[in-house]
Amino acid sequence: MAKEYLRARILKDVKRIVIKIGSGVLTSTNGGLDATVFQRLAREISLLKRNGYEPIVVSSGAIAAGMNELGLAEKPKSIPQKQAAAAVGQSTLMKSYQKSFAEHGQKVAQVLLTHDDLSSRKRYLNARNTLLTLVDYGIIPVINENDSVAVEEIKFGDNDNLSALTTNLVEADLLLILTDINGLYDENPCEKADARRISVVEEVDREIEEIAGDTISTTGIGGMTTKVQAAKKAAIFGLPTIVANGKINGTISKVMTGEDVGTLFLPKGNRMGSRKHWIAFAVKPKGEIIVDEGAEKAIIDKGTSLLPSGILNVEGKFGAGDSVSIVNLYGSEFARGLVNYGCSEIMEIRGLNTRDIEGKLGYKYYDEVIHRDDLVVLYVQKCVTDQSLGAKDVH
Ligand code: GLU
Hints:
Strand content: 15-25%
Number of strands: 13
Distance between the termini: 32 Å
CATH architecture of the largest domain: 3-Layer(aba) Sandwich
Number of domains: 2
Bound molecules: glutamic acid
Shape: globular
Helix content: 25-40%
CATH class of the largest domain: Alpha Beta
Number of helices: 15
CATH superfamily of the largest domain: Acetylglutamate kinase-like
Largest sheet: 8 strands, mixed
């Protein structure tokens, strides 16, 4: 299929777009925020909005702006220093957005999130309501990680990941990641003059992850690896992702008219439901349940619930409703889910038939330790890192 035709088809029904803008796009060579970039992006994004699209911005740049304000030549190393720089820079960042969008009569709103906000289903839904209400009011939300309070345990880590989770949060149709290179290359374009841009990625597999690992954007936190991870998460949610160069004038309109710019990552055919996507990617597991081979097979092949009979052991401290990893005999996490029982209860009922739960505990809430509706199977490649994590819906 011709590239332009494929893009046009993919973009045909897109209305709501999460646009992630990296620090490398927003800063000038002296390190501060580049006012002309803000003016250009505000013009392009306001035009999108006037054309009936619903843009939601995820913006980096707080730490970079703060460093400039504080006169720091190098990125601070300690978390409190980064947090302080972000606190100073976030207001500068918003001021820049507000000023540039105001020239087009467009209002913006700041929304700062931590991973904790998305881990709790209640707070997740609260954040969704706020964001969707802003969109209804015709305002463009500008989301960033709440860096000034986010310590390691509650961090998204990078805004590529945050933007992927945001697609589910706001029920977007497209993830557009604007960075400072032209897309994903088959080799590192900084080292190899003949490196070629990859126009379309059908599926983020091991090979693509390896290529991404070799292609580093010049600034920013994650380089291409985190962009590819984000595209993978969006694809599982049934969404296309386009990674393109936000430094170049007109990129947004070129992308939206289907021109062959950047790299298009195709969505997966069978879209995972919003709640399951949230279980797979937004919630951090609090513990592990180790299961036998029979349970592993039944969950993966037949999409069954997790029953006490297949459980061998439990690690970590968690209560009913928490997220846990389901791990096989070899220590690989192959599924995630929300438990109906706490860790000490599961220790007591592990290995038992469901009819014996009540006899053991003196009560029974559910037959299942994790019901299939609360369970997501993850495709695990060789080593379990976030990079190699995929997920499929079980029906
Ligand atoms: N939240 C960080 C900032 O605003 C950026 C994180 C990232 O670029 O991935 O500076």
